[in-house]
Write a structure and sequence with these properties.
The protein is mostly beta strands. The chain has one helix spanning about 110-115, and strands spanning about 15-20, 30-35, 40-45, 60-70, 75-90, 95-110. The longest helix has 8 residues, at about 110-115. The radius of gyration is 15 Å and the shape is globular.
């Protein structure tokens, strides 16, 4: 039986909360849980996906902010990933799974992440990149 695995690098099974959004406002922002994380890809499970939310399409650019565990006395850190959607699947009603090819990863602190997520009242997506 042929192996259908197409990954070239190892993925770690990590269940961490994350946020997924489009840098160009092409789809709605979602909260989710990572299923697995690797250097070149991330699989995210989305819950509470409602019909009014716009889902991403294959090839859409995306940002994934993964909450990292923190030690006492240290500020929270995030793994900021830039990439593209490579998989959109439905698990059960209201749950989706998104796969991403990651082009860039960077660790961020709370302040730089807050600046990244600033969005004007009108929803100007370009402010998400004000670093």
């Amino acid at each position: 039986m042929p192996n259908s695995e197409r990954r070239r690098t190892f993925r770690f099974s990590l269940r961490l909360s994350c946020r997924v959004f489009s840098p160009y406002d092409n789809f709605s922002e979602f909260a989710g849980i990572t299923e697995n994380v690797g250097r070149y890809g991330i699989l995210v499970r989305l819950t509470n996906v409602t019909p009014e939310k716009r889902l991403p399409i294959i090839g859409a650019s995306a940002r994934i902010l993964v909450d990292l565990p923190s030690d006492k006395g240290r500020p929270p850190r995030y793994l900021d990933c830039e990439g593209a959607v490579v998989r959109v699947g439905e698990l059960v009603e209201g749950e989706r799974v998104l796969g991403f090819r990651v082009r860039r990863m960077q660790f961020r602190d709370r302040e730089s992440t807050a600046r990244l997520l600033m969005v004007a009242a009108g929803g100007a997506a370009m402010l998400k990149f004000a670093l």
